Amino acid sequence: EKGEYRHFMQKEIHEQVRSLTDTLAGRVDFDKGLIQLPQLKLTAETARKINKIIITACGTAQHAGLVGKIYIEKIARIPVEVDIASEFRYRDPIIQPGTVVLSISQSGETADTLAAMEEGRQKGAILWSIVNAIGSQAMRVADGYISMQVGPEIGVASTKAFTAPLVDLYMLAVLLADLRGTLPVEQRKKLVNDLRMIPDLAGKCLEHEPEVMSIARDMKDARDALYLGRGINMPIAYEGALKLKEISYIHAEGYPAGEMKHGPIALIDKDMPVIALAPNDPWYEKMASQIEQAKARGGKVIAVATEGDKNVEHLADSCLWVPSIPWMLSPVLTVIPLQMLAYHIASIRGLDVDQPRNLAKSVTVE
Ligand code: M6R
């Protein structure tokens, strides 16, 4: 039931306060600073044996994987590759003893993701999944899994099933590092404690919906849009662009901002809105200068920025505000205004938001 909302997508965006609360419940012991993921069945012995993790997924789930790479490499210092499932399955990938294949899937029934898991199984990988649909194939065939605690997701555009796996991957990184004995206690406690504020801060992002709607009204007739991000927020540029294109049918591209001068900057003019992810993270200065460069070429810049950031407010034409948060968790927040932006643009354009043309919720064919 949609309740007070016009579409399931809008309802699911708003459900993120609850889904993020449920994602933490029972997994995080804030007093001891410990993470538990029992369904993963991960022992210290296995954790120490892992020498590579290959994350494989499609669409939005793959974008979550790109953020997860940074978590696992930064916190657990295990090399991670992220592969689109439809590529991985046909590439004869290298899997050695100690390789984990970790797939991420809301439905747990995506054909390419299941085939990638099968490829991993054949080659002797340890198989893990992060899945929403209980009892789905991706859950059943895995050696261990993390179940997303988000409830059914009806809208074709994935929202709450994106933010939950981000937190799952962060928790996984902390657990791996802890079991491998490489994470100093104080650092572990800090990383775990940082999770505490996530649901509330997601709620603060939602409070900015009226401003997002006014930016959506300005952007509704755009033909193209460019989403730029760097580092941990680069995958959020991909995700923001995917949300916009799939439900509003506006052509959008997500790009690593550092690649602009290698081609895409040629596209910038007054008719090309540039959405720049510039929260308070280690790539902030680089993004600020990227905004200046886009402005210098006549671009119209909408920045995703931290509340109270006068510098970005001054540089950009308008801002989508997110509250301040430790940088590693920033993608959980920065994606929320972009979900709302895509939703409101599609809704103003009178489109069938929950059931966009040519798309299915679960892609069970190749
Ligand atoms: O069910 P899955 O998570 O495996 O689905 C993967 C993609 O098909 C899915 O994320 C798709 O990209 C969404 N429509 C994006 O909003």
Order of helix and strand elements from N to C terminus: HHEEHEHEHEHEHEHHHHEHEEHEHEH
Percent of residues in helices comes to: 40-55%
Strand content: 15-25%
Sequence stretches where pLDDT stays below 50 over 5 or more residues: none
Which strand order do you get reading across the main beta sheet?
4-3-5-6-7
**Helix- and strand-based class?**
alpha/beta
Q: Count of DSSP E strands?
A: 12
* pLDDT averaged residue by residue: 96
Shape, please? globular
Q: What small molecules are bound in this structure?
A: 5-amino-5-deoxy-1-O-phosphono-D-mannitol
Total DSSP helices:
15
Q: Calculate the terminal CA-CA distance, rounded to whole Å.
A: 31 Å
The main sheet comes to: 5 strands, parallel
Radius of gyration: 20 Å
Describe the overall structure.
The protein has helices spanning 8-14, 16-24, 44-49, 59-76, 85-88, 111-122, 137-140, 160-179, 185-194, 198-206, 209-219, 234-248, 284-296, 310-315, 330-348, and strands at residues 28-29, 34-35, 52-57, 80-84, 99-105, 126-131, 144-147, 224-229, 251-256, 273-278, 300-306, 318-322. It has 366 residues and is of the alpha/beta class. The strands form three sheets. A five-stranded parallel sheet has the order 4-3-5-6-7, with helices on both faces. It has a five-stranded parallel sheet with strand order 9-8-10-11-12, with helices on both faces. The mean pLDDT is 96. The chain binds 5-amino-5-deoxy-1-O-phosphono-D-mannitol (M6R). Residues 58-61, 105-107, 110, 113, 156-158, 242, 246, 362-363 line the site of 5-amino-5-deoxy-1-O-phosphono-D-mannitol.
